[in-house]
Design a protein that fits this description.
Blueprint lengths: L1 H4 E3 L6 E3 L3 E3 L5 H10 L8 E3 H35 L8 H5 L4 H13 L2 H21 L11 H83 L1
Antiparallel strand pairs: 1-2, 3-4
Helix pairs in contact: 2-3, 3-7, 5-7
Length: about 230
């Protein structure tokens, strides 16, 4: 009589009430895969107890939560690594162009001084002193009388030398601007690609979570139905 009211589980080989008997055919595939992983001989022709099935249902839900936490951690790690890799893109332009030569340093200094109010004021004072000294102090009989040919020669030589020096500095500045523009383009392109990758990852996570949550809800509904059937 006892044998009619009980059965032997194909998993634990223990005896359970016949009312707790569950066929493997009714088990959802993800949970069945967990059982088959622990018991390779278990297939859809076997049986187990509802108590054992609930244990694997809980294990399935726990594994899902652990996997989700791991995926979020991996996503954060990828974002951090991606941000740290930006150092190669936003490095100093001077490092890319190399150290300045002596001539380039002189050209930059001359261009910086020649394009300042300090140079204009000092040069204006120098010209005024030159003219006043030759007209009023030397009575226009000095080393550079009117029309100040020597002064014109000095100004012409200064302009002839200053122009190419300033052009050298401007060429170097244009080269630096080109490098900055190239780096800006690379950074913008990398940012766009990272944003696209993040969107794809978020879309994948959302779709994956929705599918898994639906699966978990189905498992939970089965568990509630089993509990209600046992109560009845």
């Amino acid at each position: 009589m006892k044998s009619n009211l009980t059965f032997i589980s194909d998993i634990s080989k223990k005896e359970f009430p016949l009312a707790d008997k569950v066929s493997a055919k009714t088990i959802r595939n993800p949970i069945l895969a967990l059982i088959e992983n622990d018991f390779p001989d278990f297939d859809k022709t076997k049986f187990l107890a509802i108590e054992e099935l609930n244990m694997y249902r809980e294990k399935y839900i726990s594994n899902y939560l652990l996997v989700e936490i791991g995926e979020l951690s991996n996503l954060e790690a990828k974002v951090i690594n991606s941000l740290s890799e930006d150092k190669s893109l936003v490095s100093d332009v001077e490092d890319e162009l190399g150290a300045r030569t002596v001539g380039q340093k002189v050209a930059d200094q001359v261009a910086g001084f020649g394009g300042s109010w300090k140079f204009i004021i000092l040069f204006g004072v120098f010209i005024m002193l030159w003219i006043l000294a030759n007209i009023y102090i030397l009575l226009n009989k000095g080393f550079d009388p009117y029309p100040f040919i020597l002064l014109n020669l000095i100004l012409s030589c200064l302009a002839a030398l200053q122009a190419p020096v300033i052009m050298m500095s401007q060429n170097r500045q244009e080269e630096k601007d080109r490098e900055r523009a190239k780096k800006d383009y690379m950074i913008n392109l990398k940012s766009e690609l990272e944003i696209r990758m993040l969107h794809e990852k978020l879309d994948h996570l959302i779709m994956h979570q929705q599918e898994e949550l639906i699966e978990i809800q189905k498992v939970q509904i089965e568990m509630m139905n089993d509990i209600l059937s046992r109560i009845k």
